[in-house]
Structure formats: C-alpha cells, structure tokens
Amino acid sequence: MSYGEGVIDTSRLRQAGRWIGLSLLSGGLYIFGFTFGLFLLPLQFVFERYEKHEKLYSLGLIGLVLIAYRLLQGGGVSLGLLTLFESFGMMGVVSVMEWGKGLKTDLRLALAFVLGALVSAPFVYFLSTDVEIREGLVELLGVVFAQSELLVDWNDITETLLHMMIRTYGFGVFFAGMLVVFIGKMWSGTSYRSLWRKSLSIYSVRTGGVWVLIAGWTVALLDARFSLSVLGIVGWNVALMAGSIYSLQGLGIIQAFFSGRGRDRSAPIGLIVFSLFIPGINGIVALGLPLLGVAETWVEFKSRKKESQE
To answer: How far apart are CA 124 and CA 116, in angstroms?
Structure first.
C-alpha cells in the first residue's frame, strides 16, 4: 500500500469516527432523559456536513441505540417505551426535511408532518387503550399540579390535557423535529442564517392548501362537540398541520413587508416568536399568523418569486 493510499484510508477512518461519535452522542442525549429534546441535534449536524451514505448509517445507528436501550430496560409497554415512537417520529421529520429538498417547501413540510405522525401513532394507540399507562400519566401530571395552591379539580384538568395530548400529538412531534432542524442548521453554518430569511419572505403555499385547512378545522370542531374518536384525531392533526404551514406564510408576509422598506427583518420575526410564550398574547398571534397566511391566497401581499428549496 502506497503512502497516498494510507493517507486516504486514515482520513476516511477519522471521518467515520466523527459521524459515529455524533451518532452515539445523540443516543446518549436520549438516554439521559432531561436532554431528550436535544437528542437529534448531533444527527442534524451529520446531515449538514457528511455524505449521503454516512447520513443513512448515522440514522440507523441512532435507531439501534434507542431500541437497544429500551430493550435492556425491559418491563413491557411503558411510558418510557412509548417515547421511542415519538423519537422515531422526530427522526422521520428531520429525514424528510433533509432528503426532500427537491420538493416545494409546503409539500415537504406536509410530508414531514404526516410521516412524523404516522411513525409515532403507536404512542397514541397505547395511551388511548392501555388503562395502566393512562393512570400512570394522570398520576404523574397530578403530582405536578398538586404543587399549585389553586382550588380546582386537578383530575378533570389532567384528563382534559390527556385528551388534547392525544389529538395534537402529531403537531408536538412535528414541532420538536422542526426545532431540531432549525437549531441544527443555524449551529452548523452562518450561510443558513441569511438564507432562511430570504426563503421565508418568498415562501408560498399552493392555492389548494386552503381546502385542507378548512376540512381539518371542520372535523376538529365537530370532534370538540361530538368526540369523533379516530376521525377527530386525524382532523386535529390535519388542522394543525395546515395551520403551521400557513403560519409560516404569515411570517413570510411580515418578513417581506419589513424587507421592502429597508428595515431589519430579524427583529419583528424574533418579537413574534417571543410573543408565542406570553400568555394571552400567544393566542392572538397563533390565530393571526395562519389567518394572515390564508389571506395571501386571495390578496397578494408580497411579490411572487421563485421559491428556494433550501
């Protein structure tokens, strides 16, 4: 073997060592529990910096680590085991966002949402049908609420939260996965920081999407009145999926508005995102953004430019 070949082999070995290390770091963040929400950040870094086959290997290795950890724990079906389905759902979201770059962004977001919801669906099934798991979660939430001094029936509130958790699980998985994608891209390179602002201002949803939004919210509202079981769960997730996609279009309109006047485009977006964490104001923003995005279907607030797929 020549010297040149030896250098190449060593370089490849170091490269493999890096993505393997990042994959194991993802597994470690999942196992530690309190860092569960961050466990896919190293995977997103692999997606940004490594080759296609290395991305697939990393995804598979993380999946094996998670499965092995839960199998070693044993104990049958439990809340801990059910988080495995949520984790795989999040992995599905980040994978679609990575390998669906040739698709229009609204379709890519919809596919990411659907895949994340389908993969994590067993979580909702067991949560809905397994009495022991439901009682365990109700007891856990009851302990948390018991610290409050408010004189209310925490059991009723806990049951209500559980009911909504089952119906909005897909949105939770999608939101967590997209947060990983955004933070990971911002962390791995400065070029994306300017690119996402430009992409947001020219992002648009196809006209037919408004019917998906209307259908989803119609079923969701009927479920709130008549409790439609599985159809209600589907309706809520379709409604939240379409609402999320149109919310981004609403943000894009605001972004384009300030950009066209030569003002800082980051400040208003940051302020809107921050307001989502303020009780009272967050409801107004959560309702206003998708409505603004839907209005773009009939009123052209920003110029139509070719959308970037990145």
So the answer is: 13
Cβ atoms of 229 and 274 closer than 8 Å:
no
Query: What helix, strand, coil percent values describe the chain, rounded to 5?
Result: 80, 0, 20
Which position has the higher pLDDT, 247 or 270? 247
In angstroms, how far apart are the furthest CA atoms of the chain? 78
Alpha carbons 283 and 303: distance in angstroms, whole number: 29
Distance, CA of 154 to CA of 255 (rounded, Å):
42
- 83-106: pLDDT as tens digits: 788 889 999 999 998 888 888 888
Spatial distance between the Cα atoms of 83 and 127, rounded to a whole number of angstroms: 11
Check if the beta carbon of residue 67 is closer than 8 Å to that of residue 48. Answer: no
Q: What are phi and psi of 115, to 5 degrees?
A: -65, -45
d(CA 52, CA 180): 19
Both tokens of 175, joined, read 């939101």
Separation between Cα atoms, residue 307 and residue 143, nearest integer Å: 48
| Burial (CB count <10 Å: 0-12, 13-18, 19+), residue 301 | middle
| 180-195: pLDDT as tens digits | 888 877 776 555 555 5
**Domain layout of the chain by residue ranges:** 7-189, 190-310
Predicted local confidence at residue 208, as pLDDT? 86
Contact 219, 182 (CB under 8 A): no
Distance CA 235, CA 238 (A): 5
